[in-house]
Amino acid sequence: MTLRDNIRDFFHGAAYGAYERELRLQAAELNDLFLLLCYMEIVGLPNPATLYLLDVYPYLLEQFHLWHKRMGMDRSPLGNLPCC
Amino acid sequence: MTHLNRLLDKQVLFFGGKGGVGKTTSASAMAVAASRAGKRVLLVSTDPAHSTSDIFERRVGPEPVPLPGNLHGLEIDGEFESKRYIAEVKKRIEGLFGHTIQKEANKQIDLAASMPGADEMALFDRIGALVRGQDDRFDLVIFDTAPTGHTLRLIRMPELMEAWIRALSRSRQAMMGIQHDEQNDPVMQSLSERLEHLREFRARLLSPRVCAFVLVLVAERLPIEETARAIDQLQDAGVAIGGLIVNRVLPDSSPDPFLQSRHAQEQVYLDEIDRRFASHRRVRVPQLPSDVHGVTTLEQLAAILVERTH
């Protein structure tokens, strides 16, 4: 790490540090909404786009894992959506 | 007498109407007429109760096959399309993920495929690909559709799906805006591609230059009412009406009193059709002395639908 990088990081932290937690929370909430929209079918709501979402499911599995961890559940709460 | 010659310049034609009025026959005759006019035609049946095979006396399946009359035919099968779609998706994600995720994802994909409506959606996806002109071997794709209600829902579907996928990608975008770079997000890429396809599907469906809907009816009470409703809904959805085919019109020269009475009754309905659908192109197709099947009878009908110019 050069001095230049250190200085840049210092100013970045000073400017954005306070907002970062807020932004992270907001991103997590938006992500949860997105997951719900994709997995509606599994919680019993009809979703017309299910078939079009098939190829994004594998990418979402990881996020689903992060979600149930964040919600304080060690294992997947949905029987038909096994995770860990 | 009117003809449907103008429809030959389109790229997509839908034939719809109440069950049993002669949609398949009309669509097939139109396909034969277009092929005679030099077009490379694909005749697609979307009705789960397919009858293209019967009329052409050839086996037609889920992939285009050559038919007599120098055209190609295809009978879309929801179950087949859904299986094909699932197989494609599985193949696409193969090798992109670790073994465990892949296994879980495949389980989920199989589950989704067994949901009610999956077949219908896969069918819709195939129709979309055909409307978008995915198969460049053909100039004109003619859809012989299932009875009206089902088809109108299908016509509305791109709009509905587009709204859905757009909402999804907005939500994803908002999140990515905070967290990562959206250009490289595979989820976002997949959603954008879907959205692009749906937009194109809808644009072609709604372009009067590209696509038109032909309604087939017979001169009876219920088909007239259904046609009026279908026209309202199609116009509401923004789809161009290509014309009306009034099928099985009785000959007026019969000495038989029974037929004469039927004819008088029919005349009332024919007048009503002329009055109510005055702003649309109408072609009357006479009742033929025998059933329509095979190319010879189809050619007779084709000559009634489209006037030969050379």
Question: What labels describe this entry?
Answer:
heterodimer, A: 84 residues, mainly alpha, 2 helices, elongated, B: alpha/beta, eight-stranded mixed β-sheet, 8 strands, 53% helix
Question: What would you note in describing this structure?
Answer:
The complex is a heterodimer of chains A (84) and B (310). By secondary structure, chain A is mostly helical. Helices cover 60% and strands 0% of the residues of chain A. Chain A contains two helices and no strands. In chain A, helix 1 (3-38) packs across helix 2. The longest helix of chain A is centred in the N-terminal third of the chain and has 36 residues, at 3-38. Chain A is elongated. Chain B is α/β, with parallel strands linked by helices and 310 residues long. Helices cover 53% and strands 15% of the residues of chain B. Chain B is built from ten helices and eight strands. Chain B has an eight-stranded mixed beta sheet with strand order 3-4-2-5-1-6-7-8, with helices on both faces. In chain B, helix 8 (221-237) links the parallel strand 6 (211-218) and strand 7 (241-249). In chain B, helix 3 (78-93) runs antiparallel to helix 4, helix 3 (78-93) crosses helix 5 (118-131) and helix 6 (148-179) packs parallel to helix 8 (221-237). Chain B starts with 11 loop residues before the first strand and ends in a 5-residue tail after the last helix. The mean pLDDT of chain B is 89. The A-B interface holds A 23, 26-27, 30-31, 33-34, 37-38, 41, 46-62, 80-83 and B 82, 85-86, 89, 92-93, 96-97, 101-102, 104-105, 107-109, 111-113, 115, 117-118, 121-122, 125, 157, 160-161, 164-165, 167-168, 171-172, 174-175, 178-179, 186-187, 190-191, 194.
